[in-house]
Amino acid sequence: xxxxxxxxxxxxxxxxxxxxxxxxxxxxxxxxxxxxxxxxxxxxxxxxxxxxxxxxxxxxxxxxxxxxxxxxxxxxxxxxxxxxxxxxxxxxxxxxxxxxxxxxxxxxxxxxxxxxxxxxxxxxxxxxxxxxxxxxxxxxxxxxxxxxxxxxxxxxxxxxxxxxxxxxxxxxxxxxxxxxxxxxxxxxxxxxxxxxxxxxxxxxxxxxxxxxxxxxxxxxxxxxxxxxxxxxxxxxxxxxxxxxxxxxxxxxxxxxxxxxxxxxxxxxxxxxxxxxxxxxxxxxxxxxxxxxxxxxxxxxxxxxxxxxxxxxxxxxxxxxxxxxxxxxxxxxxxxxxxxxxxxxxxxxxxxxxxxxxxxxxxxxxxxxxxxxxxxxxxxxxxxxxxxxxxxxxxxxxxxxxxxxxxxxxxxxxxxxxxxxxxxxxxxxxxxxxxxxxxxxxxxxxxxxxxxxxxxxxxxxxxxxxxxxxxxxxxxxxxxxxxxxxxxxxxxxxxxxxxxxxxxxxxxxxxxxxxxxxxxxxxxxxxxxxxxxxxxxxxxxxxxxxxxxxxxxxxxxxxxxxxxxxxxxxxxxxxxxxxxxxxxxxxxxxxxxxxxxxxxxxxxxxxxxxxxxxxxxxxxxxxxxxxxxxxxxxxxxxxxxxxxxxxxxxxxxxxxxxxxxxxxxxxxxxxxxxxxxxxxxxxxxxxxxxxxxxxxxxxxxxxxxxxxxxxxxxxxxxxxxxxxxxxxxxxxxxxxxxxxxxxxxxxxxxxxxxxxxxxxxxxxxxxx
Length: 767
Description:
By secondary structure, the protein is mainly alpha-helical. Among the domains are: 166 residues, Rossmann fold; 72 residues; 73 residues, Orthogonal Bundle (Arc Repressor Mutant, subunit A), CATH 1.10.10. 61% of the residues lie in helices and 4% in strands. The protein contains 39 helices and seven strands. Strands 2-3-4-1-5 form a five-stranded parallel beta sheet. It has a two-stranded antiparallel sheet with strand order 6-7. Helix 36 crosses helix 37.
């Protein structure tokens, strides 16, 4: 498992289960769609505006219009398309969908922006700004976000607002929505940077109604009947499409036109039965019973309907029914128009009351068998099977954490009945974990208090832990809130409660390693990290393994063991990359940065440490953040770049002073502050010949003991020279000393000569 920067991996669970891939291009256009040329011309004329907003209720053809327009522009302008649904309220899902769509539409983005899952906090702070920087360098493009009304208040909607506020000049943003978006439309309107298409704009004209009813569907209606239908439906495209389906099977079309009223509600009530009657019973049953599905494909529909041949039925429906929308070019996946799907759901309730739960249950089973966990839980909840939903979530919640989808877990938990959530210890424990990993520690605290006060701590397994106590102690071991003593106690208790074969035992060793490191017991820390590393591999705790190796690198550096410093840093980075964890892992970034500094690659070192600090800052766990801040300040000071050092140390001081038990971190910070207050050595002359020689030898794979043996002096004598050089250079570590010495020219100018020359004498007796 985990590092305190907020990542967790469980054994036996796919690390990236629930981010559904999408196409980066417009949805396929139905060949029988009526082109809205007057609207297409308005869209074409608005090429220079920053925002195009298509806002109107369901059934007005927003998606169809924009897809038709986008398809017509592909030869002239790059178009990226994202179809949003409720899963995109999880910022991780929204980010992946957004970047993958942009990269597919614009290969020129290259590797400038990563499309892998990442922590929600980093998306706003780092990834979005980086994305817009890259987009600003690309040719002009249009980004379509369809159905933005599904975005609820939260990080995902904040991402959209930020995108609009910082929109590059070459990027046109197009939004379709059923509801008024919470965006600064007034400012854009005043600047002439907004095109708005509302319900009044998208209503069918009599000419468009005639094109639909007579030219496309060959209904042979009299002109006055066409005008009457358009007026009675108020030009509502969905109503006219429904009317066309109904009229196709009607013996007396004029009588049918004359028999219904003008309101959309009446149109729907009247026409749905007529539409259904235009299909045979088998197809009616197919449509009504598959209305429980958000997306449709042959194998899924076969499973839900307990039949075969569904793929052919879908293809037939797509050819004849504009309310069946293809989701790909291959004719594999479809969905019902949202409004039409809701109407079919009403039909299901009226025609076959009581059948829906069984259909949802079959869909849940299919999704679960195909590792679509989010969809499986959603189907269980839609079908009222709260027990099944809870069972799936408690057995798979860590797969969401592996993908940094803590917000997705909280979104699913909100769908459970409040009474069930409040009385289910497993769900409450998962809620506490999700809140903690979202950085909402204040919100997690009362949940944890309720668990301790209302449920037995030793009643047996819960949510993958041996008992409730283990689940709580593990969480507190990962997030000790600046209390090293509590971290050691909690992690030690988990090690007692979980067997060495448990997936959580490596996590306990990891937390013990972190606590021991900050307690100053480097030997105990390295032993615990070694155990976490070995046990974490078979347990599937890949993040635990990567971060444990990273800490072993840091410890090796503090012990003056440069070979292990470099080896473990490289191993941690490679292991993380092999398991798809390369971004973000704060501890790994810090270790890689310190190793780079020891090699003299200071630019890369600072970049890595900056990344590590930025990620750790968002997780609000004080110990690891303060440690990273101090190490970054050390490296900056060592290379003579001291401008940022005071602010970094001030932040670290505020953190350390807030910690109940920071242990050695307080001393480390004090040393860094004193070193920062002292003027750094600015010339080689301030160092003795022996100190310069020692510094040159520190820039090697040799340990201090080996260097002492090479120079024929005792370890204590050698270490005295090292401490003196550190003091003069204003540094506190070997890596920083070597870096500062290179800046002064102590190492690079003389390394070759020093390697060949005999050691200089300082009066010590050869031994």
